[in-house]
Recover the amino acids of this structure.
């Protein structure tokens, strides 16, 4: 037998809260998925273990594989963890006088993020976020720009000098400058920056204390989100460059020559040297949505419900007309921010979610706490003493204790069984299997309701969508959370466990910049006024194009290498919510161009809210100008496998508890299934990175692209 020769071309890494997934693709579209436990203290360590696991499947070492790779993307959680645990840099801030308590006071909406409805209603456990910068390191300076961009009070430069000196005396590692309405007129912020540099030069600390200016980084209205975003850039994002550089250095030490990119919140990838590194705060889940769009374009899907189950959460996103939604003021880690983010809804329910029984109500409670990378009680080395969803799947026979991560982690099924009996079954007055199966059913019903609710909330039906399942825990539960729902199709890629990493590799090398413009298009305006609006919008686009070119220059790309696309955020005049619209033309110089922009907005608005919501009599407001620029990069290719008749070999048999009780069940190695082969339930498909149970009444058919179609068995 001749061993296939592989030439790795694309590398994608997703360092999640539980597992680090590595996805490596060769020149023909063949791929391997590597998996290792995440190493939060140093994500580069988990990456290398994961890459070694992937390349081992091709009988290669990193020293052999890394030099051949031409495109590499990383997504991780270190920045988010740094924010959540308040272990970022010691930074200070300079704000408009009177705004020194903004981080402590917050806004009402921010203080309630993450609280249940009961807590919001009764304020039983309400508390403010711990500010990232303490009050003593927030300095106010007098001077004022109004909401129209006019200077109504000159900047008092002495205030700024005293503020800088005070912060430098405190030994800060970064200085944030965020003044009111600077997105309209940045003159005061720019002057404060100059004063900071002058004071740093006088002390000889020029390179030791970087400056972060809100009008440069996030020039959009809503002052608290802008302040939050700029603070997070200094506090959590800047030190994360060290993590990313450690990843780059570790790969280069093993022979890599590629430039490492990182997944950004808007759905593109950026260099680790980019200015707006905070946009990579929640990069992992976004990769899955980008990968879903890439896949939809190639296999002819129009509407896709993306569902991602990991160890900690269940993430849901919608592709409608192959487009995902982007929100401009997202909330993350209980902070309202000013940056574009692919719309993803996250539910605190994953395979590592803890299971507890309320002693008073005798009611099961799932999550929100999670064992994360520690798996559950079945892994003694993890030190977890609370039962997790993984423990329940183990005692039901749906997981192989000797094949978790391909056998790298050995699970103790008897220990899990003992803890499930003690913590769950006995308090409920049930047998171990009955209790475990009942809670798994409750868990999957909750996921099913969340997924269907997202579709119904948009005014669509599940019959309009194909469900795409991925994540390490997705195949394990997909049969349960799709049962009885009339989706067009239910798809499970062979590489589901590494799909988010795969999606990162499908993303463009792309920078995106926004600027607040607030240009009105009203019914009573003259043609000259409408053309003037178009000229100002075009001018804003040109300025943003320059910023995109400057970022690509850091990676060695010439201006002519960059391809631009132009967008706006737009709304009916007087409304509160704007939407993102692709501009049909790159400049607005004629009345026809203006009309084309309005038509694009109306079409987008109708797709999102139905045509009955159209209100052209109000006029329009172009809130933001947006430019995205990209350069060519190598991406994965979709594999095409020859058709094979017959059935795959049965790997083993074992007793598995299904809804009707125990049944002797055939177990297959997922890699042994070929295009055209059908697995009739009950069956279990196992891979090193995931497990895919097929219950009675369902079957799994593999297509030519390595995607399983989960179908109901015909009567």
């Amino acid at each position: 037998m001749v061993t296939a020769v592989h030439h790795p071309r694309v590398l994608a890494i997703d360092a999640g809260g539980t597992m680090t997934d590595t996805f490596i693709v060769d020149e023909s579209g063949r791929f391997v998925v590597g998996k290792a436990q995440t190493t939060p203290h140093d994500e580069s360590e988990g990456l290398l273990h994961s890459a070694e696991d992937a390349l081992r499947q091709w009988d290669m070492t990193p020293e052999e594989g890394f030099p051949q790779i031409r495109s590499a993307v990383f997504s991780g959680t270190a920045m988010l963890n740094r924010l959540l645990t308040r272990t970022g840099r010691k930074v200070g801030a300079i704000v408009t006088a009177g705004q020194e308590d903004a981080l402590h006071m917050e806004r009402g909406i921010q203080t309630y993020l993450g609280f249940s409805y009961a807590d919001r209603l009764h304020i039983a456990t309400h508390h403010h976020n711990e500010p990232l910068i303490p009050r003593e390191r927030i300095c106010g300076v007098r001077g004022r720009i109004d909401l129209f961009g006019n200077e109504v009070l000159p900047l008092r430069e002495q205030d700024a000098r005293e503020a800088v000196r005070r912060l430098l005396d405190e030994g800060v590692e970064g200085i944030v400058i965020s003044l009111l309405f600077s997105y309209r007129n940045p003159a005061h912020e720019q002057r404060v920056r100059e004063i900071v540099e002058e004071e740093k030069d006088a002390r000889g600390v020029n390179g030791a204390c970087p400056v972060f200016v809100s009008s440069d980084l996030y020039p959009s209205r809503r002052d608290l989100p802008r302040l939050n975003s700029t603070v997070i850039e200094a506090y959590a994002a800047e030190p994360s460059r060290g993590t990313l550089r450690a990843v780059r250095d570790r790969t280069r030490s093993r022979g890599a020559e590629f430039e490492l990119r990182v997944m950004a919140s808007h759905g593109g990838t950026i260099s680790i040297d980019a200015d707006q590194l905070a946009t990579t705060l929640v990069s992992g889940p976004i990769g899955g949505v980008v990968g879903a769009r890439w896949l939809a374009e190639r296999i002819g899907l129009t509407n896709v419900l993306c569902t991602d189950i990991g160890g900690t959460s269940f993430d849901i996103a919608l592709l409608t007309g192959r487009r995902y939604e982007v929100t401009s003021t997202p909330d993350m880690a209980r902070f309202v921010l000013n940056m574009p983010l692919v719309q993803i809804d996250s539910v605190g329910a994953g395979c590592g979610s803890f299971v507890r029984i309320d002693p008073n109500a005798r009611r099961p409670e799932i999550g929100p706490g999670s064992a994360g990378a520690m798996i559950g009680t079945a892994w003694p080395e993890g030190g977890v003493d609370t039962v997790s969803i993984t423990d329940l799947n183990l005692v039901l026979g749906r997981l192989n204790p000797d094949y978790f991560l391909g056998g790298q982690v050995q699970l103790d099924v008897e220990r899990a069984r003992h803890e499930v009996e003690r913590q769950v079954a006995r308090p409920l007055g049930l047998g171990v299997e009955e209790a475990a199966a009942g809670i798994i059913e409750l868990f999957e019903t909750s996921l099913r309701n969340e997924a269907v609710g997202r579709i119904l909330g948009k005014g669509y039906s599940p019959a309009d969508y194909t469900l795409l399942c991925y994540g390490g825990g997705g195949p394990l539960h997909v049969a349960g959370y799709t049962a009885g729902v009339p989706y067009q199709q239910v798809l499970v890629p062979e590489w589901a466990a590494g799909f988010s990493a795969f999606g990162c590799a499908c993303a463009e090398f792309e920078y995106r910049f926004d600027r607040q413009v607030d240009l009105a298009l009203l019914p009573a305006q003259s043609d000259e006024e409408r053309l003037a609006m178009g000229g100002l919008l075009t001018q804003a686009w040109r300025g943003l194009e320059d910023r995109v070119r400057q970022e690509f220059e850091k990676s060695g790309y010439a201006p002519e290498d960059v391809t631009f696309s132009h967008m706006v955020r737009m709304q009916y005049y007087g409304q509160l919510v704007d939407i993102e619209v692709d501009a049909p033309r790159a400049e607005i110089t004629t009345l026809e161009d203006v009309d084309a922009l309005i038509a694009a907005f109306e079409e987008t608005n109708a797709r999102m809210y139905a045509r009955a919501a159209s209100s052209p009599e109000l006029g329009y407001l172009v809130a933001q100008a947006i430019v995205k620029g990209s350069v060519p990069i190598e991406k994965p290719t979709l594999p095409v496998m020859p058709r094979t008749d017959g059935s795959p070999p049965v790997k083993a048999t074992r007793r598995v508890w299904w809804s009707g009780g125990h049944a002797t069940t055939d177990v297959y190695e997922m890699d042994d299934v070929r295009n055209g082969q059908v697995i009739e339930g009950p069956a279990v498909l196992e891979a090193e990175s995931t497990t895919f149970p097929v219950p009675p009444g369902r079957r799994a058919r593999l297509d030519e692209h390595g995607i399983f179609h989960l179908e109901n068995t015909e009567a």
Summary: The first strand starts at residue 8 and ends at 15. The longest helix spans residues 223-252.
